[in-house]
Design brief:
The protein is an alpha+beta fold. The chain contains 9 helices and 30 strands. Strand 17 and strand 18 form a beta hairpin.
């Protein structure tokens, strides 16, 4: 879990984007009565169902104003008033569909349920991408696997001394409400103090660790469970809970100051704009992130198309954020020009190989350092590198050898079945069989340059 290390400060009044310090958290409070990201998704999903559109259709513009009330028509489209009325006008004009009163009522209910009175964020600009995958909602991003060289080298080099990423932290804790079922008459005795305690039967699969026979004064296996236990005992002592009742508790699951979102930056076109792309996670989309930065700076933003040269993966459109001094209309496209880096992939595990951290086996395979250390061995006879599955252990010689060395340097005894060095084998000329010296001493005797089998003594003799 990644947390900010400096105390967040307000964005200086009149500061431009490139005036902000890197690695300094800044706090931003968005205007009131803004519909949350979850609320927007619910409204759009409902509109798609009403309009009969699939998820690929953008039923509302990307730059739609999600304020509950708009009093000034900056778009020139006469979209003023409450959110349901503005959506109704847009759907009639863009889609030729007139929303009914029941539709407007449902849109209003969804929006009101998901409208924050205060919405605060903390962001930080960085010129090094030094966190682990998942620290900022980017679990599974290819920039920690196939495109790691882009994350570590190409993108920071492209931006120079300017920031190459923006990351977001929680400005307030997030809660989850859970129910605890109290069985007051089931008790246990603390192993340490001997105190009789009431039992809590958890209904939180995967959230609660296994209880131990400890009272509330002892250290529990789970700090999460300890908080619930203390709250339950306070309620029991105050007479608020009875056996068989449910008690609901709000539990902090995500602390203030922990990272939850990020996006990459391209900051090479002057001081009046920058481009954001590859935002994570989907619950706080790139457009939401741009809105936070634009609000903090007093700038504007719009969605644009992005294309690229070189070694990079783009997962959608981009956002250009521009200052009031930006000359002319914001361009609708952007070209990200990065070097093309030749990449190698391990031929055993398919993971990407960074730089010169690879090895070549005798059979011509290019493998990563991990596979070399865990899945490869050097032949004790020829010294070449092979996969462990292609190596053979010679018990008699206590050597690990490759298939070629085994076939050319060792022979299987026709009696005991073990492999021995060719120098330790004896060939029976009249039969063509090969035996190790141990088996030869037991089975044969030498006479006139030939070996003949001992005659087994019969049980009758």
């Amino acid at each position: 879990m990644y947390r900010y290390h400096e105390i967040p400060i307000e964005v200086p009044k009149g500061a431009g984007f490139f005036d902000l310090k890197k690695n300094q958290p800044y706090k931003v409070q968005l205007p009131e009565d803004m519909v949350t990201s979850e609320g927007r998704d619910q409204v759009i999903k409902y509109l798609r169902a009403v309009l009969g559109k699939d998820r690929w259709n953008r039923v509302l513009p990307d730059d739609w104003d999600w304020s509950w009330v708009v009093t000034k028509d900056e778009s020139g489209q006469n979209y003023v008033g409450t959110l349901p009325k503005r959506i109704s006008r847009y759907c009639h004009k863009a889609w030729g569909f007139k929303l009914e009163s029941t539709h407007l009522q449902e849109i209003g209910n969804i929006a009101r349920r998901n409208t924050n009175k205060t919405d605060s964020y903390v962001f930080e600009l960085v010129d090094k991408i030094d966190w682990d995958s998942g620290d900022f909602g980017d679990q599974g991003s290819c920039f920690w696997s196939d495109y790691e060289v882009t994350k570590d080298e190409l993108l920071p080099d492209y931006n120079g001394d300017r920031p190459c990423a923006v990351r977001f932290y929680r400005a307030q804790p997030e809660y989850e409400t859970h129910n605890i079922f109290a069985r007051e008459h089931i008790t246990w005795t603390c192993d340490k103090t001997g105190e009789v305690q009431h039992y809590i039967d958890s209904l939180l699969p995967g959230r609660m660790e296994k209880w131990t026979n400890c009272c509330r004064s002892c250290k529990m296996n789970s700090e999460y469970g300890l908080r619930l236990l203390r709250q339950y005992h306070r309620d029991v002592e105050r007479g608020r809970r009875k056996a068989g009742e449910y008690a609901s508790y709000n539990v902090v699951v995500k602390q203030t100051g922990t990272g939850f979102a990020r996006s990459w930056l391209a900051c090479t076109e002057g001081d009046e704009s920058f481009v954001m792309f590859n935002g994570y996670p989907t619950s706080f989309q790139l457009y939401d992130q741009a809105r936070v930065l634009a609000t903090a700076l007093g700038w504007t933003y719009r969605r644009i198309n992005i294309d690229s040269y070189g070694t990079i993966y783009l997962n959608g459109d981009a956002i250009r954020v521009a200052s009031p001094n930006y000359g002319g209309e914001i361009e609708k496209s952007f070209m990200l020009d990065l070097p093309e880096v030749e990449r190698y992939y391990c031929e055993w595990c398919d993971d990407p190989i960074r730089g010169d951290d690879y090895y070549t086996t005798t059979t011509g395979y290019i493998i990563c350092e991990y596979c070399y250390n865990h899945d490869a061995s050097n032949c004790d006879d020829c010294g070449e590198t092979f996969h462990n599955d292609d190596m053979y252990w010679i018990e008699s010689a206590q050597r690990n050898v490759c298939e070629d060395c085994r076939d050319n340097g060792y022979t299987n005894c026709d009696h005991c079945g073990e492999d021995y060095n060719n120098d330790e084998m004896v060939c029976v000329e009249d039969t063509g069989e090969h035996y190790c010296r141990n088996c030869t001493d037991y089975l044969y005797e030498h006479s006139d340059g030939y070996f003949y089998a001992y005659e087994e003594e019969s049980e009758d003799e």
